[in-house]
Amino acid sequence: MQTINSVAALRTKITAWRQQGQRIAFVPTMGNLHDGHLKLVEKAASLAQRIVVSVFVNPTQFNDEQDFNAYPITLEADSGKLAEAGIDVLFAPTVEELYPFGLQVGIQVSIPGLSDILEGESRPGHFVGMTTIVSKLFNAVMPDIAVFGEKDFQQFLLVQRLATDLCLPIEVVACSTQREDSGLAMSSRNSYLNDSERKQAALLYQLLDELKEQVLSGASDYSRLCQKMHDQLLDAGFRPEYVELRCAQDLSKASSCDRDLIVLASAWLGSARLIDNLRITLDS
Question: For 266, which DSSP code?
């Protein structure tokens, strides 16, 4: 594995691979890697000959400066995990490399509508920062394939739309959510949970699964189901931000006519903000 810090050096490497006719898969991360990230790498390795993983904590997608300052920087440990996973290049740029004109005056990439709901409503500005940095990374890496996790489902849809709308020759691929034995979705932010909170956090997935089963059994009052789950989380000591049943294609409000649904939830537990979702496919 080679660690590269500059876009110019990365492009030299990418160009050589392209001249050899090799396909390139890319996994963007903010580091503090866990087994869920390594599953993304495994997926990427099944789809291409060369694998690039970026580790970059992007300041523009944090709407809370305290959250940004508290985010764990674990580059040395991340590098060891990625080397063991057999990737080709770890791209670890500086802020100055990716924002040469500074954070406040650089170009921004935004996707109106889809970026303003759910996570976008809870974290104003987050998705503008995300789509901007993904655009920069796509231009730097120039991959054939980019792999994203389904836990951040809204992010995945936004990146798909970004690639399509900007006519980028990149296939955006989803990898299923990786879970701990308790059902808790793997996340870098799980490190903010203490031992008792970590056990309690599994309730988020359990309630999502219960709601899914109710829908599959014919329940159609989606608003009531979501409100019930919201109240259950509140009673259990969470601070829920949203519980929503949406159309999985575009996250529009779900109706009884929709067959491909997704239930999404966000809630705070202690100092950790947890998000999760489950797809629901109804018979035609």
Answer: E
Ranges of each domain in the chain: 2-175, 188-281
CATH 3.40.50.620 is held by the domain 2-175: yes
> Computed from CA positions of residues 80, 81, 84, 85, in that sequence, does the dihedral angle turn out positive or negative?
negative
95 Cβ neighbours under 8 A, 6+ residues apart:
59, 103
37 among known catalytic residues: yes
Question: For residues 201 and 233, what is the distance between their CA atoms, to the nearest angstrom?
Answer: 10
Report pLDDT for 63. Answer: 84
Q: Quote the pTM value.
A: 0.96
The one catalytic residue among 34, 37, 126, 230 = 37
How would residue 25 be classed by pLDDT, with cut points 50, 70 and 90? very high
Distance CA 87, CA 89 (A): 6
Q: Are 29 and 93 in contact (CB under 8 A)?
A: no
Specify the CATH class of 188-281 in words.
alpha beta
**CA neighbours within 13 Å on the CB side: how many for 251?**
22
Residues 63-89 have a mean pLDDT of 94
pLDDT tens for 132-156 read 999 999 999 999 999 999 999 999 9
Report DSSP state, residue 189.
G
Dig out the tokens for 255 from the structure. 């109706």
Sheet holding 145-149: strands in order across? Answer: 2-4, 89-91, 50-55, 24-29, 145-149, 171-175
Residues 6+ apart with CB under 8 A from 61: 125, 126, 127, 128, 129, 130, 133
φ/ψ (deg, to 5) at 132: -65, -50
